Amino acid sequence: MDVQVLKRSFDQVVPQKEAFAKAFYQRLFREFPETAPLFAKTDMARQESSLIATLAVVVNGLAQGGDVVPAVKALGKRHKGYHVEPEHFDAVGQSLLATLSEYLGAAWTPEVEANWVEAYTTLATVMKAEIAAAV
């Protein structure tokens, strides 16, 4: 995974972060309506900010050579309490990649896509393991 590719592409999204996050959740709920009940009692403005903040922690942490695994594990544990199931990760991943593609436009190259797929797959794997391990 080329973390600089992730960082550059994420930096292109940041100026539009509010619209990006809103578009992500709209897409998620439209294409995967079974996920909407997970957010029934959620302050969506806060959730949208949290999405961007989480992406920033992961992308910037990786770009700086940091170990983001502990933060991702903690995120996985929290998601157990939100009743997230392993199949929800596919929905989120597809929605995230589609929204990134939409917002990056011509900058969404095969290289950028491959790096985001690898990054998301790795993070989702760690989170799913934490959900499975949480009691």
Word description of this protein:
- This protein has helices spanning 3-13, 17-31, 44-63, 69-81, 86-104, 110-133.
- The protein has six helices and no strands.
- Helices cover 76% and strands 0% of the residues.
- It has 135 residues and is an all-alpha fold.
> Overall pLDDT, averaged?
92
Q: Could you give the order of the helices and strands? A: HHHHHH
Q: Uncertain regions: pLDDT < 50 for 5+ in a row?
A: none
Number of helices: 6
Total E-strand runs: 0
Which descriptors would you attach to this protein?
135 residues; mainly alpha; 6 helices; 0% strand; globular
Could you give the topology of this structure?
Elements: H1 3-13, H2 17-31, H3 44-63, H4 69-81, H5 86-104, H6 110-133
Helix pairs in contact: 1-3, 1-6, 2-3, 2-5, 4-6, 5-6
